[in-house]
Hints:
240 residues, 7 helices, 75% helix, rod-shaped
Amino acid sequence: MESQFGIAHVWTQGDFVTRAVAIILLAMSVASWLVILIKALDIVKFKKYATSSRDFWHSPDLASGLEMLGHDKANPFRFMVIEGREATAHHRKTSAHLHDTLDISDWVTRCLRNGINEFTARLQSGLAILASVGSTAPFIGLFGTVWGIYHALVAIGMSGQSSIDKVAGPIGEALIMTALGLAVAIPAVLGYNALVRGNKSILNALNSFAHDVHAYFVTGARVSVDGQVSGNVLPLKKGA
């Protein structure tokens, strides 16, 4: 009887190693697609926040600006404003501490930078899974292929039938494992590159926004594109 090609036939005819390789590749594929979908939804959400952050500077005061940014605690742009406000208030109201050796500009910069670093770590979480899957899945599939070919050749040798129709079936089935490895790795690599580009655009927008927030809390006005202080935002009231 001629061999039937297909993943199902490989599963039924393969040993525990072949099945283990198939399960590992399936788990890696599910994990990578979950990361891609979850992180892609996050990027879409954060890009909406980046767009709405532009309207913040058209608000009449800080309270209205925060209201315009919404109430989602996951909004990094809202978090930058709150962090800058709290850093400014903390620097002005506390008594002598070690941080008093820093002026208000350095203190606000430090607090905003810490917030950006925390958001960057959260934004990049999960990308290591995609990188690992993209780099290892082809080799796991290749291992399954080598193992399958070895056992196929042993079985053919024991049967004493070495005609091309007897060889092509088992060898072709073993090569399916390589194809599975590539099918798992390629989406992971493409997803990783797309997510990195999306994260970069969000971080660029957040850094620009944080720069303006820093200028607002230190000088009372936003820094315009040409580097001059803009008066479009009401100055921060003392003690705010």
